[in-house]
């Protein structure tokens, strides 16, 4: 009979490893973006909430 408890803990460890890899990749990408040269043509735009009722 398979040892389901051991299989579960192995899976949980692999999921945790994958999450660590993804988090590190995200942080590196964010740092690279923040330290990079500004791209010409990028603009900050405000979006107005169209769901508000006028009072």
Fraction of residues in β-strands: under 5%
Give, in order, the helices and strands: H
Computed Rg? 22 Å
Category by helix and strand content = mainly alpha
Low-confidence stretches: none
The largest β sheet comes out as: none
Shape: elongated
Which range best describes the helical content: under 10%, 10-25%, 25-40%, 40-55%, 55-70% or over 70%? 55-70%
In whole angstroms, how far apart are the ends?
A: 68 Å
Average predicted confidence as pLDDT = 87
Please report the total strand number as a whole number. 0
Main attributes?
55 residues; mainly alpha; single chain; 1 helix
Fold and architecture overview:
With 55 residues, this protein is an all-alpha fold. The termini are far apart. It contains 1 helix and no strands.
SSE inventory with pairings:
Layout: H1 4-35
Structure summarized in a few sentences:
Helix content is 58%, strand content 0%.
């Amino acid at each position: 009979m398979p040892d389901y408890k051991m299989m579960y803990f192995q899976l949980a460890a692999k999921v945790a490893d994958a999450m660590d890899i993804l988090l590190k990749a995200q942080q590196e990408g964010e740092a690279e973006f923040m330290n990079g040269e500004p791209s010409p043509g990028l603009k900050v735009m405000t979006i107005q909430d169209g769901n508000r009722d006028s009072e």
